[in-house]
Amino acid sequence: MPATNSSKRKKRSRQGEDDELVPPRKITGKELTELEELSARLTTLVEMLDEKGIINKKEYDRTVAMRLHEISKAGAIEELDEEL
Fold it and tell me: What are the boundaries of the region Disordered (predicted)?
């Protein structure tokens, strides 16, 4: 008996369950570090969301800058505290 469309879909979706988070690709240039790849992925996501009007990129950038400043400041305070 031939497989139905729904059983074919289930097979395809199950095949990807054990795959890595990022499937391996043929590298055509310099291999990127995980940090470079993550940065590129996030930048692309933010740009796509901004284009669709879901978020405001300028507001997002300001919020990220404030958050990074807070994290940096907290880290500096922890270092000073350890020295004392």
Answer: 1-28
